[in-house]
Amino acid sequence: MSREEERQQRAIVDAPWAVPAERVAELLGVAPQAGLDPHEVAKRLREYGPNLLQEAKRVAWWTVLARQFRGLIVALLAVAAAVSFSFGDLLEGAAIGLVILINAAIGLVTELRAVRSMEALQQLTRIRIKVRRDGTLAEIPAAGAVPGDVVVLEAGDLISADLRLLNASKMQADESALTGESLPASKRSDAMPEETALADRANMLYKGTTVTRGSGEGLVVATGMATELGQIASLIEAAEEEATPLERRLDRLGRMLLWATLVIAAAIAAVGIASGKDLLLMIETSIALAVAAIPEGLPIVATLALARGMWRMAQRNAVIRRLSAVETLGAASMICTDKTGTLTENRMAVAQYVLASGQVDVSESGFRSARGPVGLEDAPLLRTALEVGALCNNAEIGEAGPSGVGDPLEVALLETARKAGVEIAELRGRFPELREEAFDPDTKRMATIQRTPDDATYVTVKGAPEAVLSACTSVLEESGPSPLDAEARGRWLGEQRAMAERGLRVLGLACKTVSDVAAPVYEALSLVGWVALADPPRSDVQDAIARCRLAGIDVVMVTGDQPATGASIAAAVGLVDTEGVEPVRGEALDRAGTLSAEEQQHLRGMPIFARVTPKQKLDLIALFQADGRVVAMTGDGVNDAPALKKADIGVAMGLRGTQVAQEAADMVLKDDAFGTIVEAVAQGRAIFDNIRRFVLYLLSCNVSEILAVAVASFAGLPLPLLPLQILFLNLVTDVFPALALGAGEGGPGIMRRPPRPPGEPIIAGRHWGLVGAYGVLIAVVVLGALLVATGPLGLSDAQGTTVAFLTLAFAQLWHVFNMRGSDSGVFRNEITRNPYVWGALAVCSILLLAAVYLPGLATVLKTVRPTPRGWALVLAASTIPWLAGGTSLALRKRRAAS
To answer: Rg of the chain's alpha carbons, rounded to an integer?
Structure first.
C-alpha cells in the first residue's frame, strides 16, 4: 500500500465515534495492545506535524516601536516641537524631535525585552502524556503525539489531542471548554450514531478537556489544528490581555500626576509671561516641565521589573503563569501546604508489612521479621500481600532500576514486589485484568478484577485502612480466612495508628476469590494486612518554615492523610514543637460557618488539618480569607483545582501535579518543594519593592524639577533649567537609574518583615511625604547653587544656569542611594550591591560631561563649561540631598532598633 493510500485510509475515520473502537484502530494501522513502533511514529510526525495549536504571532519589533509614539506624553513633546518650529527655532524643534526618537528607542528596547521574556516564559511548561509505543508505556511531550497513538488516561489528565476511547472505567470528563456544559460528562467506549452531537459523544475525548474521574485508554484520531479545539481556534482572534491590578494602579497614578502637572505648568507659564520673561521660553518650559514631571517610563520599567522577577523565579523552579500573581505573592500572609512531596521528598518506599503472621520490615538489605530474614518460599502471606499490591496497581516499572511511570506509591509497591522476587509481567500474565474500579476520593479505595488460572474471579483491593477494613469480614491467615470480629478490628486499627504515628503512610490490602464476575467488589473481603510506606521530610523545609515565621507568614499543613501521620511530619519539619499537637479533622470545617467568632478564631490558629476533602479545603480558604489573610494554597490533584482557583495564590506541583491542577494554578513548582514557595514569596516582595522604589525615585526627582522652576519663576530669578535641559534630564537621570532600580534582587531583610497589606497602593501616605521632602530638598539645593553661582562666585547667568543644571542632575544621581531600605547598611545594601546601579551612574555621568564639553550637544542644551569653582559648587551642593537622606535613614534605623 502506498503512502497516499495509507493516508486516505486513515482519513476514512472522519466520524470515529460512529465506528467500533477495534475498527478505528484497524483503519489507523495500530494494534492497541502494542502501540506504534518508533519508525511509524517518526513517519506520521513528518506527515501530520507536531501536535500543537497555531501559536499567537510573535509581536514584531515594528509593532512595539509604533506603540512608543502613542499617548499623551508623546503628544506633549510633539506640541513642544511644533511651537519651536512655529517660532522659527529650528534647532530646538529638531532637538525635541530627537528626544521623541530617543525616548521611542529606549521604550522599544526595554518593552521588546519584556515581550520576549514573557514569550519565553510561556515555553517553560509543557504538557506530557503517557502513551503505549512498541509494547511499553512511555511518557512523552504532548507535542509528539500522532494519529494512532494509544494514550493511557487517569483522573486529572489534560487531554492534548482528540481521542476515540478504547476502554473506560468510571470515566468522566469536563468538556465545558467545548460544550459549555458545566457538569462532567460520563464516558464509555461503545460506538454511537454518526449524527450524535459533539456534546453527546460519550466515546470521545477532545483536546482542551480534562478527565475528572476514572481511567482508561484512548486512540489519537486528530492532532494539532485538526482537532475540534484547533478548528475553533482557527476561527477566532486572540483576545487582548486584561490589565493587571498593578498596571491599573500605575495608570491611575500617571493620570493623577498628569492633570496635577498640567495645572502647575500652566501656572508657571502664566506667572513667567506676566513677569516679563520670553513668551516662547515660558511656553516651552511649561511643556517641558509637564513632560518631565510625568514618569512616562513607569509601564515600561514596571513590565521589565516583572519580567526579570519572573525569570528569577523560574530559575528558582517557580513558574508564574499569571502576571497578577507576582504582586499578590508579595502580600502573602499564609501558606496552606499539603504534605506529600512538598514537605516531604515524595520518595515513597515500602518500610513495613503487618500481616496476621506478624510484622515484616523492608530495607535495602531485604525483608526481616522478628525471627530473622524472610523469603517468599516460607512466607505465603507476604507473597499474597506483594501480589495484591502489584495487581491492584496502574503503574509501570522497567526491568531494572528505580524508574517507573505512575503514582510514586504504586511504583514503590511494584519495586518492592520485584525486590522480593515477584516477576511483575509473569504475575499479570497469570492473572489478566478484566476490569478496574478506579480510585474514588469519596470511598478512598480502588479495586481490580482479574481472572485466575482456573477461571475464577480474583478481586484485589487497596486503599485507606479504615475504608478497606470496613469492607472486610475476614482476615487472611496462613491456614486461610478467619472471621474478623470487633476485637480483631480494634487490634488492626491499633497497629495502623502506631505506624501512622511514626510518620508512615499506611494502606490496607484485601482480596477475595469469587465465581461471579458481577459480584459486588467491596463486600466480604479478606483483609491481607497493612503496608506502610515512608516518605522522609525534605531537608530544607525546616529552614523554610523558620523563614516564613520571621517574615510574618503562617504555615498550615492541609493533608488528606491520617491525623497521626500529619502530626509526625509536622513535628519533624518544625511546623509544631512536639508530636503531641492534635490535628483538626476535616469534618470540623463542614460546620465552620455556624461556629462562634471565638471558635472560628481557634480554628484559624491550628497548624494541622488532616483528612481534609476538596470541599473542606474551600471552606478552610474562605475561613482564612474572611480574616483578611492573603492565602497561598498548594495542590496536585484534579480535585484540588477549585481550591487552587479560590486561593489568592494557587500553587500546583510540577512533578506530580495533574494538568488540571497546573492549569488552575497561578504558580507551578518545577521541583514540588516547599522552600521554592518561600523563595517565590521573597521574589514577589522584591519585585513590588523595586516598583515602589523606582516610582518613589522618579516622582521625587520630577517634583524637584517642578519646584525649582516654579520657585524661580515666582521669585523673578533666572530659570535654573532650560526646556531642552529638562528633557535631557528626563532621559538621563530618570530612565537609566529607574531601570537599574527595577532590576534589583531585594535586600537581605526582605523576609524579616511582615507582609504588606494587600490593598496598599504603590505610593502610600508615608511615601508621598518622602516624595515631597526629597523634592523640596533637591530643589532648595539647586536654587541655592544658582544663587551662590550668580552671587558670591560672580558667574554669568548662563554659567549659573549650567551650575544649577549640573547640580540637579548629579543630586538626582546620588539620590538613588537614598532608595535603600531603612533597615539596611549605609555602604552595603540592596542599592550598592546592584551592579546595574553602578552602570547607570557611569553612563549618566559620561552623558552629563558630554552635555557641557561636547560642542554640538552643549550648543543644543545651551550649556557652558563650568569654572573649577563652579564644579566645586556642583559637587558640594549635589551631595547634600544624599547625605541628608542617608542621615535620616540612619536615624530611622536607630529609632527602630531602640
So the answer is: 35
Q: Which among 98, 72, 88, 80 has a CA at the least distance from the CA of 269?
A: 80
- Taking 80 as the threshold, does the pLDDT of residue 723 lie above it? no
Average pLDDT of the chain? Answer: 82
**CATH 2.70.150.10 domain extents, the chain:** 3-51+145-233
C-alpha torsion 66→72→75→81, nearest 10: -120
The residue among 646, 582, 570 whose CA lies nearest residue 615 is: 646
What 3-state class would DSSP assign to 39? Answer: helix
Which CATH code fits 247-312+682-751+761-897?
1.20.1110.10
Decide yes or no: CATH 3.40.1190.10 for domain 3-51+145-233. Answer: no
Cell, residue 591: 460546620
Q: How far apart are CA 703 and CA 734, in angstroms?
A: 12
- With a CB cutoff of 8 Å and minimum separation 6, the contacts of 716 are 275
Return the SS3 of 375.
Answer: coil
Class of domain 353-359+374-529: alpha beta
200 belongs to the catalytic site: no
Tell me the sheet residues that pair with 509.
462, 529
* CATH 3.40.1110.10 boundaries in the chain: 353-359+374-529
pLDDT for 184 equals: 72
Q: What share of the chain is helix, strand, coil (3-state, %, to 5)?
A: 50, 15, 30
pLDDT at 359 over 90: yes
Fold of 319-344+538-672: Rossmann fold (3.40.50)
pLDDT, tens only, 442-462: 688 999 999 999 999 999 999
827 Cβ contact list (under 8 Å, min separation 6):
none
User: Is pLDDT above 80 for 26?
Assistant: yes
Q: Which of 162, 338, 640, 672 is catalytic?
A: 338
The ranges of the chain annotated as CATH 3.40.50.1000 are: 319-344+538-672
Q: What is the pLDDT of residues 753-804, one digit of tens each?
A: 898 887 777 777 788 889 899 999 999 999 999 999 988 888 888 899 899 9
